[in-house]
Design goal:
Helix content is 29%, strand content 23%. It is α+β, with helices and mostly antiparallel strands. It has two domains: 214 residues, no CATH class; 117 residues, no CATH class. The chain has an eight-stranded mixed β-sheet, with helices on both faces. Strands 7-6-14-13 form a four-stranded antiparallel β-sheet, with no helix packed on it. Strands 4-5 form a two-stranded antiparallel ribbon.
Amino acid sequence: MAADLPPDLGDSVVVLTVQGLDELVTRLSALGYEVKGPTRGESAIVPGSVKSSDDLPRGVHDVQSPGSYRIVHNDDDEELFGWAVGPESWKKEYFPSSQVMWRGEVVGDTVVFRQPDRSHTPLAIVGARPCEVVALRILDRVLEEGVHRDARYSDRRDSSFIAVVECASPADTCFCASMQSGPGIDQGFDVALTELNDEHGHRFIARSGSPRGADVLSSVPTRPANELDLEARTLLLETASRAMSRSLPYGEVANLLARNVDHPRWTEVAERCLSCGNCTSVCPTCFCSDVHDTTDVGGAIERRRTWSSCFDLEHSYLHGGSVHESSASRYRQWMTHKLSTWWDQFDSTGCVGCGRCIVWCPVGIDITEEVAAIAARDEVRVGVPSRRGAS
């Protein structure tokens, strides 16, 4: 995303201190939100309850590379958001990995069905990354704006509050700049924060992106942002963008994969791929699921939806066999859907460049490396249907 401020938000930019951030969290709690954000787990940054800035990963940084993730701590560092992304995205807050769809029981000669209670405490996320907010907007097209609206997802999304924090510390595996999903952001949030810690102090530039965001910001102490603050934000985002060594050709990758379904690289990557499904589990936009019905001897019935993966043999099981029997076909299915045919279904890409699929692959398969390998031996064929992702 461009580092420049959108013109319609330029006059509403303010600055919060760390104490002001604490008051923002307190205000959200007072409004009835369950406030969550990034917290320091035993060996990773994970979503957790946030009551003040003390719960945030102060002085924590992450070191990520293909097949490797670790966190380090600097006691002298006051930064609260000096890391990229953890293994868990915010998807699970709206689309749980396991969810009861309905329950029933046999009563006499009839079956009585009961819907689970859909009431919930509204969620406020403080510290989502731009790529994660873009990922939620992608899921909105699938689960909320599609033909088959997921009411549970919509209820949770429509009532939530998002305070995004722009990214100044991309990991080695990040490529959000090439996917137009970071390190800055200009829509899809209630409040956007940019952490600055320089000779002018530790502070946050804050922008409202919705009426409720503006209302919350107006209730906490702020000061107007000055030219030095805005210049520091611009420099921070430009530096973060330049720091990313990985990229994908956003405007070309959809057509590239569409015309290379028989490329030899699919077989080559399959020799490494374990078909474990880690990449789909950590991806913030994968939405495949299975539905299972269970009964017990007492007549109780339960239908449960669980996350699924296109790397499972059962995922494409039809009429006695799997459509995607080989690892090569399963990896091709995942990557071509994510980067190519997703455009046909949802008018967007399915990748936000967070790099999780690279980091959490046990053998370090790199999606940007695979696209580059296919492009290096690309034989352009005439008559391939155009994808909307192409420029």
